[in-house]
Amino acid sequence: MAKIQRAQVVLDECGACKGFWFDHGELRRVADDKEMEARATRERKYPEASPFACPRCGGACHRSFVGEVEVDTCGKCLGVWLDARELEEAKRQLDAARALSGAGSGFRAFLARL
Predict the structure, then answer these.
(1) CA 76 – CA 110 distance, rounded (Å)
(2) Cβ neighbours of residue 67 under 8 Å, at least 6 residues apart?
(3) How far apart are CA 94 and CA 34, in angstroms?
(4) Rg of the chain over CA atoms, in angstroms?
């Protein structure tokens, strides 16, 4: 894994698949979205085990979802793995859901564009 900087956070990127490992707290900072990290780390809601082990601590990972985007989360250190382009897709889906429900500032920006 290579170290890259994104949104003033140093992330681990897989050179082969271009996926990202986010240590606990990094996803919230990069996406500027507390809800995204909270959804990704809800391990008890989706008890299905992931085939991956945590690259940071070796803990067992489980699958969870941010919108329709499947992510792998370590049950021990709460790190999150996102495949290439899943960060952008998860953010897009959360923003769209908030706009449709009328929650958050995204909805006001959405109305201003109409």
Answers:
(1) 38
(2) 39, 89, 90, 93, 94, 97
(3) 11
(4) 15
Residue with tokens 């959360």: 94
- pTM, two decimals, is 0.78
Q: Assign 82 a pLDDT band (cuts: 50, 70, 90).
A: very high
Query: Which tokens is 47 given?
Result: 């008890």
Residues in the chain: 114
Q: Provide the edge-to-edge strand list for the sheet that holds 20-22.
A: 2-6, 9-13, 20-22, 80-82, 69-74, 60-66, 49-53
Taking a C-beta distance cutoff of 8 angstroms, is the pair 87, 30 a contact? Answer: yes
CA distance 43 to 45: 6
